[in-house]
Amino acid sequence: MAGEPVQGGPVPDGPRGLPAGHHRTHPLTPLLTGWKIVVGVMAVLTAQNAAQLAKEFTTGRLLFAIGALIVVMVVAVVLSALAWHKTSYAVDPSGVTLHSGILTKSRQFAPRSRIESVSIERPLLARLLGLAKVRVEIAGGGDDIDIQLVRSEVAEQLRHDILAVADETPSSTDLPTAGDGTGPELGTGPTVPAGQLRDMLHDGVTDGELIAEIPTERLIRALLRDVEFGMGVVMSAVGVTVAVIIAVVQDGFNFAVLIPLVPTLIALPKYILGRIEAGWGFVSRNTARGLRMRRGLANTRTDNIAAGRIQNIDLRRPLLWRSHGWTAAQVHVAGIDDSSPNGAQSVLPVGTREELALTFGHLFPPLGTSDDLATIEHLLTARAREIDGVRVTRRWHWIRRRTTVTVVLPGAVVRRNGVFTSRLQVVPRGRIQQLELADGPMKRRLGLLDLSVKVAGKTIALDALPQPDARELHTLLARDARTLRRYSERESWPRPRLAPGSAEAGQTPTQGAFGGGDRDGADEDLLGESVSGGNQ
Amino acid sequence: MGTMPATPGSRLNVDGLRPISELQIKAHYRASIVGYVIWLLVLAAAVWLALWQGWWWPWLVTVLPVVVVVQSLLLTPRRIRAIGYLDGEEDLTIARGIMFRSIETIPYGRIQSVTIGEGPIERGLGLANLSITTGADGAGTSLPGLPRAEAERLRALLTERSLALMAAL
Q1: Interface contact B91, partner A, CB < 8 A
Q2: pLDDT at position A515, please?
Q3: Interface contact B108, partner A, CB < 8 A
Q4: Residue A135 burial (CB < 10 Å; 0-12/13-18/19+)?
Q5: Strand order of the sheet with strand A422-428?
Q6: What is the complex's ipTM, to 2 decimals?
Q7: pLDDT for A521
Q8: pLDDT band for position A51 (cuts 50, 70, 90)
Q9: What is the pLDDT of residue A172?
Q10: A236-277 per-position pLDDT tens digit
Q11: pLDDT score for A265
Q12: Closest chain B residue to A452 measured between Cα atoms?
C-alpha cells in the first residue's frame, strides 16, 4: 500500500470495507495510542490522591487497583482498536482525505491548494517500532490532518506523494496530466549502502544542498550559554528546593510534601529535554520543495518549509552567543500553529553566521540592502542606540529607548529589542495584511502611538513609536500592504535569493547580497511559491 | 483626556472619515437593555441586603452596577459618533474610540471575506453591520451601524475591489 500512485483512477482493491484508494493506518496504532489514555487516567487518579493512597496501603487495595487498571487498559485498547478500524486515509490528485470517528464520524479533507507542508514525527515508542506520524499542515488555520501511525517507509512515501499533489498548480480546473504527478524524487532517493547509517541517523534527510547541521557539542554549549534558559532552569530548581526545605522544616519529612511539586518535577526536565530535542541532530537541506529539516533525540521529526510561504522571521541572539556569532531563527508560516522550539517553524535552533546566511537566503526575500547579511549582523550586534531607526526618546521609557529600535529597509520592517538577548523581528513589507494605529491616554500624553503590523496569522507590535514617525510609518506600510504581492504582478514578487528558480526574480535592487555563495539550485524548478494558494 | 471632538472626520492618521448612522445609538441602547436589567437586579439585591440586614458592605457592591450603567448611558452616543470609516481608493479605514483611539487599515486586495449581519434590533431600524476578514489572525474587523443600502454598497465595493486588486498572503 505504500507506493499508491497519486494519479488516481480506480484502485483495484483497497482493504475491505474501505472506499477505493483508502488505506488504514498501521495495526499497532491502537496499542500505542491507547497506552496514553491509560497513563493519563492513572496520572490523574494518583496525582490527586497519592498521599492518601500511600497512607492507607493494603494488599487488597493494591490488587483491586491492578484489576481496575487492567479493565481500563482493555477498554482503552478496545476503543482505540475500534477507532483505528474506522480510520482511513487517501491521497489523490485533489488532496488528502482522512476519515475517522466511531460515533461522530468526521471526514477531513485538505484540498491540494491549501496544503502548506508535511511533517513526519516519530515519537519514541513509535520510533522503536519503526512507525511514524504524518502531519499535513493546512493554510489558513483550521485542523491539521494527522495520519498516525504508519510504517516509516510508508510515511516517507506519503510525504512525497502529498507534496507532489500539493505542487500541482491549483489553477488547472481538472485532474493534472497523468505521468508527471511525482516530480523529481529528492527526499527518498535510493541509498548507497555506505550512506545507510547516515541515512538512518538523519531520517532520510540526506539529499539536497546542506544548509545547516548542528553538532551536539555546539547545541550543549549554546544551551549552557543561553542566559534565559539557564535562568529559567536555575530559578525553578531553586524554587523547588526552597519549597521542599520549607515544607520539611515545618512539617518534618513526609511523602505528601513532594506531591504538589510533581508537576514542576516533570515540567523542568521536560523543558530541558525539549530544548535539547529541538536541536539534537539538526540537519536542514535545500530540496525542490523548500527547506527540509530533521531534528530530535528521543522523538524525532522531519519538516518541510516552503520558501515562499514565510510570513516573518524572528532572530534571537543571547548575550553569550555573541562571541561565536550564533543565532537562532524562527519563522512564521500561516497554518502552522506549533511555535514551540522543536516545532517546524524553528528553522535554525542555533546556527553559525554562514548557516544563518544560507537559511535566510533560501527562505526569505531579500531585505534590499547592499549586503543583507552585514545588515542583519549589524542590527543584531550593534548597540540599539547606534542603529539608525525610529525609537522612543522620552526619558519615561528609560529601558526601551536604549534597547528598542524600528528600522525600515527596502524589503522589510525590522524591530530590534531585548536587553541581554538581542531579538530581531523581520516582517517583509509585501506580507502585511492589515495595519492598526492606536493610542491611549498615557501614550497620548507622551506623544506616542502603537502600530500593529498584521501578517497572516501573526501580529507584530511596533508599540510606543513617536507620533510623527508612527504616522509616517503607517502611511508607508499601508501603501506596501495595498500594492505589494498583487496576483496580477506575481512575476515580480520578491523571492528568496538562494531559493530554487529565483535567478530571474527580484524587482528589489539586490544582487549579490549575502556574500555566502552563488548556489542557485539550477536543477530545481518546483518553487512552492509559484503554486502558492495565497488567497484561499 | 476626552477632549477630542466626538465626531469622526479626522483621526490619528486619516482625514475625511464618514460617520455611521445615528440610529446605531438607539440600536446600541436597545441591545443593552438586557444587560441594564441584570445590573439593576444586582443593584436591587445589594440595596435590599443593605437595608434589611443592616449590613454596610453591600453598599460597596452597589458602586459597580451604578458605574457600569451610568457610563454606558452617558457615553454611548459619544462612542458611537466616534466610529467612522473611509472607503478610500485602495483601502478601507475604520476608526473608533475616544480615549483609546484606533484606526484599522484594510487594503482591499487582502480581504478574504465580507459578511453582512443584521440582528433583529438592527433590522427594525434598517441597519446592518459589516464584518471583514483578512489573512491576519483574530476574529476580523467589524463595522456596525450602517444603513442597509450603504452596507450593500460597501459589500459590493469590497468584493469587487478585492478581486481586482487581489494580493497574496
Answers
A1: yes
A2: 31
A3: yes
A4: buried
A5: A346-351, A327-333, A310-317, A422-428, A412-417, A405-408
A6: 0.87
A7: 34
A8: low
A9: 34
A10: 889 888 888 888 888 776 666 677 777 777 888 888 888 898
A11: 79
A12: B104
Site of grid cell 547545541: A219
Among A140, A437, A486, beta carbon nearest to B109: A486
The residue of A431, A434, A450 whose CB has the most chain B CBs within 10 angstroms, and thus the best one to mutate to test that interface, is: A434
Residue A340 near residue A121 (C-beta atoms within 8 A):
no
Strand A115-122 and strand A106-111: pairing? unpaired
Q: What is the pLDDT of residue A406?
A: 94
Q: What local confidence, expressed as pLDDT, does residue A7 receive? A: 41
Quick one: cell of A452?
Answer: 500593529
Are A140 and B109 inside 8 Å of each other by CB? Answer: no
d(CA A416, CA A375): 12
Residues of B (65-84) whose Cβ lies below 8 Å from A: none
Q: Residue written as cell 526618546?
A: A393
| For A534, nearest residue in chain B (alpha carbons) | B168
| Mean pLDDT confidence for A22-45 | 79
CB–CB of A440 and B100 under 8 A? Answer: yes
Closest CB to B167: pick one of A435, A459, A486.
A486
Chain A segment 477-496 residues within 8 A of B by beta carbon are 478, 481-488, 490, 493
Closest-CA residue to B137 (of A437, A311, A135): A311
Hey, what amino acid is at B73? L
Burial classification of residue A439, based on how many CB atoms lie within 10 Å of its CB (0-12 exposed, 13-18 middle, 19 or more buried): buried
A404 neighbors A392 (Cβ within 8 angstroms):
yes
What is the band of A395 on the pLDDT scale with cuts at 50, 70, 90? confident
Residue B39 near chain A (CB below 8 Å): no
**How many whole angstroms separate alpha carbon A322 and alpha carbon A350?**
12
- Residue A449's CB is within 10 A of a number of other CB atoms, namely 28
| Whole-number average pLDDT of chain B | 89
CA distance A352 to A317: 11
**In the prediction, which pLDDT does A270 show?**
85
Contacts of B138 in chain A (CB under 8 A): 454, 459
Cβ atoms of A513 and A497 within 8 Å: the answer is: yes
How many other C-beta atoms lie within 10 A of the C-beta of residue B82? 23
Kindly indicate the confidence band of residue A197, based on its pLDDT and cuts at 50, 70 and 90: low
Distance CA A413, CA A410 (A): 8
Instruction: Give the chain B residue nearest A445 (alpha carbons).
Output: B1
Optimal mutation site among B89, B102, B105, B111, interface A, most CBs of chain A within 10 A: B105
pLDDT in tens, A109-160: 888 888 878 889 988 888 888 899 998 888 765 678 889 889 988 998 898 8
Which chain B residue lies closest to A448 (C-alpha atoms)?
Answer: B12
A232 touches chain B (CB under 8 A): no
